[in-house]
Every structure is written in C-alpha cells, then in structure tokens.
Design brief:
Layout (H helix, E strand, L loop, with lengths): L3 E5 L10 E6 L12 H9 L2 E5 L7 E4 L2 H9 L3 E2 L29 H13 L1 H6 L1 H18 L3 E2 H6 L1 H11 L6 H12 L5 H20 L9 H10 L5 H31 L1 H9 L4 H11 L10 E3 L3 E3 L2 E3 L4 E4 L1 H4 L34 H18 L4 E2 L21 E3 L1
Parallel strand pairs: 2-3, 4-10
Antiparallel strand pairs: 1-2, 3-4, 5-7, 6-12, 7-10, 8-9, 11-12
Length: 413
C-alpha cells in the first residue's frame, strides 16, 4: 500500500489506539481476476477504514463487511443527493455528479424515476428480448465459427452481443449501436481525461433527448418509449429521462467486461468449464457464483453522504462525512461466504451483492444474468474445444477503466 496519513481523533471518534489512518488508494490497472491488494489490506485492517482516492478532495469512510455494506446502501441516513453539495474523494476525474441524475437522487424522487422504466427490467420485460437476444448471439457465434480460429472473443462476441441487447431493450436502432458503443467507452475510461468523457456524456444525452422526445405518444415497451410516455404524462421531466437513459445504456455495456472476466476465469480454469459442459443444470447457480467471485470493477463506485451521525461497528460517522461501500469486499466476507476465495458452484445460499443493494440496486441485474446464461450456453456448447490462444499472462486487460475486463480475449477451438 502507498501513502498513509495518520489523523489523531479523540472522544467518540477515537478508533483503536486513538488514531485513524487515511489510506491512499491508487487507481491500479489490475489483470486477470486478481483481487485488489489495497482492498485486501483494507479488509484486514477493519470493518470501517478511511481512504483517499486519486481524484476529488479529502477522505471518505469505507465499509467492507456485508452487514455494514447493506446498512449503508439501504439506510435513508446515508444519501446520494448530498454528494452534489461537496467535493468528495473519488476514483476517476470524470466522476462528476450530475444534478437530477438518478444515481444522485434519494427516495422518493429516485423511486419515481425508477418506476418509469421498471416494466422493461422485470422478468417479463427481460423475457421479451430473450429470444431475439439468443438469435443475435447465434448469428455472432455462426460468424465466429465461419471465420475460424484464432479469434478475439471480446471483439467478435463479448462486445457486440451486450451492445445489441441493451440497444434493443432501450429502443436504439441498430444503425446507431456503434455510436452508442463509442460514447460508452469514452465515458467509462479515465485515460482520455475528464473533458473527453464529459463531452461523450453530453453527446449521448443529446441523442436520447431527441429519441425520447419523439416517443412521448408511444405505447411500445422499450425503455425510450417508456420514458417518453412518462414524460408525456408529466411524471418525470425530459432531463430526468435523459439522465436515466444514459445511465442504463452505460450499465448495459458493463456486461462486456464482466463476461470477459467470466470467460477468462473459465478458460484459465478448465475444470470449471468442463463442469459446466458436463452438467447444464448447474449453470444458473454457477453464474451466480461467478458473479460473486469476479472483481467486476476497480476500487469503488459512487459515494454516499451521512445525513446524521451514525455509528458503524463502534466508529462514529459524522453528518456530512462521505462513505463508500465495497460490494467486491462484501462478496468475499468470510462470515457470509465460507472459503470465499474458492469458486464453488454448489454454494448455497449465495446472497452476493454483485448488482448492488438497496434503492440503487442495478435495475439491469436480471438482464445481465440472462445474457451471461446465454453466453455460457452458446460458447461452451457450440465450441467444446474453446481455449485461450495465448498464455494467460499475455491476455491484455483494459487500462484506466472503471469496469475491469480484458481488452482482448484471444481464443482458439
């Protein structure tokens, strides 16, 4: 771990020894499914620690145990909207709050916005695009097989498939998918700088503003139409609809990196892949275990602000303090997951929080799980000899990315 700043505390704020270190947490470019060594140290140091991230200002509390993560994520005493009013230490330079965006709203406004698109993300809504998603995936695998090995699985399948699925769910025409993908990659990467990322977000927002405005009288079930109808009924504003659409579009592409890590793990652990090939019935449960295990992001996401004094594990968090939760750490909590470093397809129960928890639980959780199931079925069944075409340590992973994943996944079969 890098720099440590010691800050003396007294009274109710005192921790063990009367001192609470502020740990600097750099933006590490990690490869494979290696767990963040800084986060591992923080987990060892205590259930509640203090961190300083590369950007923003000051320090923030970090909670890593499952019960504390769920508490902060679900307790109205911790709010997102208050982030708008203060500088908070953060991972990326372009993690800049957008006023009115659903990610920075608290109930009841947050609930109101989420309700407008909820039908698209229910089991019925996801089921509506399952058959078309399977057909699109089969076409991609057909093309992969026809071209022959070696191939880049990220470029040929893992990237175009989630783009096609989320664009269909959102109501984005096929002709505009490439532009959506370009904007998303610029928004999710810190390597181009804050200005480039913000420009990409503005351009995507302008696109959705036009699309949603054109669908205020639509009765279709895609997200743009649902948002347009809600705007037409004056349940939400166009600005709110655009902010939600941008967030959902970006989140939909996270499946590319998550599935890249998933298949990297399966191809570097052929025993796991063979287990899934031999017994298809275990696949849904196995996918939950893979979702629990893979480190799907770098560092932490969005903070919350304590709206009043709250005690967590004997630590006084004062009103106004920023607080981060680590879902990655919670998914390795040994009190919840015995032998958490082991990938166990028979693990039950498996109450992982890969899609978050509380009001800000990822609305696309069911969609992402469906896509993972289809990918595992198609690639393992249709390509029984699927393997890495290069040594595992030569698989390039994305640098400067907020969501971890391989930049390319060279395979043969």
């Amino acid at each position: 771990m890098t720099d440590t700043t010691e800050t003396a505390l007294t009274g109710p704020d005192a921790l063990a020894g009367g001192r609470c270190p502020v740990r600097h947490w750099p933006a590490l470019d990690l490869t494979g499914v290696d767990f963040d060594p800084v986060l591992a140290e923080l987990m060892e140091e205590g259930p509640v620690t203090r961190i300083e991230l590369p950007n923003g200002e000051g320090w923030a509390w970090l909670v890593t145990r499952m019960d504390d993560v769920r508490l902060v994520a679900n307790d109205p005493r911790f709010g997102r909207e208050a982030v708008m009013d203060q500088q908070v230490t953060r991972l990326a330079p372009h993690f800049i709050p957008s006023r009115g965006a659903v990610g920075f709203l608290d109930p009841p406004d947050h609930t109101r916005l989420r309700r407008s698109v909820a039908p698209a993300f229910t089991a019925r809504g996801v089921g509506r695009v399952r058959d078309s998603s399977r057909r699109m995936l089969d076409e991609l695998v057909d093309q992969l097989i026809a071209a022959g090995p070696p191939a880049d699985l990220t470029e040929t399948v893992l990237s175009p498939f989630p783009i096609a699925v989320i664009c269909e769910l959102m109501g984005v025409p096929a002709a505009d998918r490439h532009g959506m993908h370009t904007w998303t990659q610029l928004i999710l990467s810190s390597s181009h700088g804050a200005d480039v990322s913000e420009q990409a977000k503005e351009e995507m927002g302008a696109y959705f503003a036009e699309l949603i405005d054109a669908r205020v009288d639509s009765s279709e079930e895609d997200v743009a139409s649902l948002l347009g109808a809600a705007v037409g009924r004056r349940e939400i504003t166009l600005r709110e609809a655009v902010g939600l659409a941008v967030l959902l579009q970006i989140g939909g592409e996270a499946v590319t990196n998550n599935s890249g890590q998933m298949f990297y793990l399966l191809l570097t652990r052929p025993d796991l892949a063979e287990r899934l090939r031999a017994d298809a019935s275990v696949r849904p449960q196995a996918i939950d275990e893979l979702l629990r295990f893979i480190p799907h992001r770098n560092a932490v996401g969005l903070s919350r602000i304590a709206l009043e004094d709250v005690e967590i594990k004997g630590v006084r968090v004062r009103a106004g303090d920023p607080v981060y939760v680590s879902y990655l750490a919670a998914n390795r909590d040994p009190e919840v997951f015995p032998d958490p470093e082991t990938v166990d397809f028979s693990r039950s129960p498996n109450p992982h929080v890969a899609f978050g928890f509380g009001p800000h639980y990822c609305p696309g959780g069911q969609l992402a799980r469906m896509e993972s199931e289809l990918l595992v079925d198609a690639l393992l069944d249709r390509l029984p000899g699927l393997r890495l075409a290069v040594p595992a340590d030569q698989v390039p992973f994305r640098k400067g990315a907020l969501i971890r994943g391989p930049e390319a996944l060279p395979v043969a079969w």
